[in-house]
Write a structure and sequence with these properties.
This protein is mainly alpha-helical. It has one domain. 52% of the residues lie in helices and 6% in strands. A hairpin with a 5-residue loop joins strand 1 and strand 2. The longest helix has 39 residues.
Length: 168
């Protein structure tokens, strides 16, 4: 039987033996497996969301290669490109603290290019705070969706305003 007992040593030289039932062990492994599967699904969905947002932002900002948003590593290079920075700065994703600070700066520029207040990019700072990180990340996802899919000024919406003639 695999891991059916756990032996702990006490300070006085005696040992304590705990017996773990095989069903409990199976339940623990099933919980871990379920958590891992759920994490993989959520990671995939978040990747698809970021890819769609990156694609839409690339189209709105008139970048000629918006398909880069769907390639997992290439999307790190899309962020400085959309912020009108050298694409090689995308290699800084290998240094997470530096990339995090630059990502805030780049999203600030991208937000302003889309006529949104750049200060909205500071919401990303909340994502690293303990206790409220999930809420900050979720808020950043919502803001990114608005910036990518909603145009703030009427001339970008492609709405044709037709004035009706008055009939007398």
């Amino acid at each position: 039987m695999f891991l059916e007992s756990l032996i702990l040593s006490t300070g006085d030289g005696s040992t304590i033996r705990f017996v773990i039932d095989n069903t409990l062990l199976a339940e623990i492994f099933m919980f871990i497996a379920g958590f891992l599967i759920l994490s993989l699904i959520m990671g995939f969905l978040i990747h698809i969301y970021f890819a769609l947002v990156g694609y839409r932002l690339s189209k709105k900002l008139r970048y000629d290669k918006p398909w880069l948003a769907f390639i997992p590593v290439a999307n790190f290079f899309l962020l400085p490109i959309l912020a009108k920075q050298p694409w090689a700065l995308g290699f800084l994703f290998l240094i997470p603290p530096v990339f995090f600070i630059l990502a805030i700066y780049w999203t600030w520029i991208i937000f302003e290019r889309r006529n949104y207040p750049g200060i909205l990019s500071l919401i990303l700072i909340i994502a690293i705070l303990p206790g409220v990180g999930g809420a900050g990340f979720f808020a950043f996802l919502i803001i990114l969706g608005f910036v990518a899919f909603y145009d703030r000024n009427k001339k970008d919406r492609n709405i044709k305003i037709v004035k009706k003639k008055k009939r007398n």
